[in-house]
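Renewal narrative, Specific Aim 1. Our central claim is that a sequence can be written position by position from structural information alone. The example that follows is taken directly from our test logs and has not been curated for this report. It begins with the C-alpha cells describing the chain, in the order in which they were read.
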C-alpha cells in the first residue's frame, strides 16, 4: 500500500484533495497532517473520517521532531504540501507567522523527506502547492506563464515565493523529486469566510455591509476548488519531476462585478427582491499593496497532462452560494468558533 501525506488537509483546498484521494485511491493510505489552526476544520472531512484508508495527525510543520516521528511511523512515498498561512490581509498584520509556517515549515518538510527517503528516490514525490500571487501584479493585458519572473508584493506572496525557491533548491541540490504548481484564486464549498466570496455570501445572508476594497476594479481569476483538486491529482501522478505547472480557471472577474453577481444570485436563492443585496455594497479603504490583476496561462498543464477546468463561473458561483445556504450549521460553527472543539470530540 502506498502512503501519501497531505499537509493542510483540514483546510479549504486540502479537504477537497483529501476527499478526492481517499475515495479515488482506496489502495493508498492518506495521512492528513494538519495543525488545526483557525483555518483547519475537521468538520470539512466528516464524510471521509471513518474511511479505512484515512488517518489524521495533528502536527505542526515547523516542528521537525513531530515530522520525523510521522515519517518514521508511516514511511510515505508521497507528500502533497498544502499547509500554509493563506490570507493576504492577515499577512499584512502578522507577517512573521507567514515566514514561520510557509517558509520554515516548508524547509523542515523538505529536510524530513530528504532524510527519510535518502537515495531511494525512484518511487518518491514531493508536491508543493503554491499560488499565482508569486508572479506579482499584471496590468490590463498579459498572463502569467511558468516563465514569468517572480515579483511577490505582499508578505503572503513573498513567503510562498520563498517556499517555492526552497523546493526548487532541494531538487537541484539534493535531487529531491519535486513538482510544483501555482494556482489562481479558488472558490467553492468549505472556503473560510474571511475570503472574498464566502464573506460576501455570509454578509448578504445576515444583511451586513459588503466591503469592496478600493475602487473594486482589481481582477482575480477564479477556479472551482474541485477543478484544482483534479489538477493536483494529475500533476502528482503524471507531472514531470522538477517541473512547475500553472493552474487557472480562465475566468477573470473584476471584484465589483463579482460581488454584484453574488448579490443577484443570493437575491434569487433567498427570494429577495431583485437588486436588494446590491444596496449593501460599501467601498472601503484599499488593501495596502493591493495587486491589481492576476491571470493565468495554464496551457502547459492542459497540453501536457490533459487537464482543463470543468465548471463555468455562473454555475460554480450559484453552486457555492447554494452550498453555504444548505450548510448554515458549518458556517455558524466557523463563525462561533465551535468547529475548533470538533477535534477533541472526535479524536480524544
Ligand atoms: P487554508 O488557510 O484554508 O488552509 C490551510 C491549512 O493549513 C489549515 O488546515 C491549517 O490548519 C493548516 N496549517 C496552517 N499552519 C500549519 C502548520 N504550521 N502545520 C500544519 N498545518 C498547518 O488554505 P487554502 O486556501 O486551502 O490553501 C491551501 C494551499 O493552497 C496553501 O499553500 C495556499 O498557499 C495554496 N493556494 C491557495 C489558493 C486559494 O485560492 N485559496 C490559491 C492558490 C494556492
Ligand atoms: P481574497 O479572497 O482575500 O483573495 P486574494 O487576496 O488572495 O486574491 O480577495 C480577493 C479579492 O477581493 C482581492 O482583490 C481583495 C478583494 N477583497 C475585497 O474587496 N473585500 C474583502 O472583504 C476581501 C476579503 C477581499
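The sequence written for that structure reads:
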Amino acid at each position: 500500500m502506498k502512503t501519501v501525506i497531505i499537509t493542510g488537509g483540514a483546510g479549504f483546498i486540502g479537504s477537497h484533495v483529501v476527499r478526492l484521494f481517499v475515495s479515488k485511491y482506496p489502495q493508498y493510505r492518506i495521512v492528513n497532517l494538519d495543525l488545526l489552526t483557525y483555518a483547519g476544520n475537521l468538520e470539512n472531512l466528516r464524510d471521509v473520517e471513518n474511511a479505512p484508508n484515512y488517518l489524521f495527525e495533528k502536527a505542526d510543520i515547523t516542528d521537525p521532531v513531530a515530522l520525523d516521528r510521522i515519517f518514521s511511523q508511516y514511511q510515505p512515498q508521497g507528500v502533497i504540501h498544502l499547509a500554509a498561512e493563506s490570507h493576504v490581509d492577515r499577512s499584512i498584520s502578522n507577517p512573521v507567522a507567514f515566514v514561520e509556517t510557509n517558509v520554515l515549515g516548508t524547509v523542515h518538510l523538505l529536510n524530513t523527506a530528504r532524510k527519510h527517503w535518502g537515495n531511494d528516490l525512484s518511487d518518491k514525490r514531493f508536491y508543493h502547492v503554491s499560488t499565482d500571487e508569486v508572479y506579482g501584479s499584471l496590468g490590463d493585458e498579459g498572463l502569467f506563464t511558468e516563465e514569468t519572473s517572480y515579483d511577490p508584493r505582499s508578505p503572503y506572496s513573498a513567503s510562498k515565493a520563498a517556499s517555492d525557491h526552497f523546493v526548487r533548491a532541494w531538487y537541484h541540490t539534493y535531487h529531491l523529486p519535486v513538482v510544483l504548481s501555482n494556482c489562481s484564486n479558488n472558490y467553492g464549498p468549505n472556503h473560510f469566510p474571511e475570503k472574498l466570496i464566502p464573506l460576501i455570501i455570509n454578509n448578504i445572508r445576515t444583511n451586513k455591509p459588503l466591503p469592496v476594497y478600493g475602487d473594486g476594479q482589481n481582477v482575480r481569476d477564479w477556479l472551482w476548488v474541485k477543478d484544482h483538486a483534479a489538477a493536483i491529482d494529475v500533476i502528482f501522478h503524471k507531472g514531470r519531476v522538477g517541473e512547475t505547472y500553472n493552474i487557472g480557471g480562465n475566468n477573470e472577474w473584476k471584484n465589483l462585478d463579482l460581488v454584484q453577481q453574488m448579490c443577484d444570485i443570493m437575491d434569487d436563492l433567498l427570494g429577495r427582491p431583485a437588486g436588494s443585496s446590491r444596496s449593501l455594497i460599501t467601498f472601503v479603504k484599499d488593501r495596502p499593496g493591493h495587486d491589481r490583476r492576476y491571470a493565468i496561462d495554464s496551457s502547459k498543464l492542459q497540453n501536457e497532462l490533459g487537464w482543463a477546468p470543468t465548471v463555468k463561473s455562473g454555475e460554480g458561483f450559484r453552486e457555492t452560494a447554494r452550498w453555504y445556504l444548505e450548510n448554515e450549521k458549518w458556517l455558524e460553527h466557523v463563525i462561533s468558533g465551535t468547529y475548533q472543539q470538533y477535534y477533541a470530540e472526535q479524536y480524544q
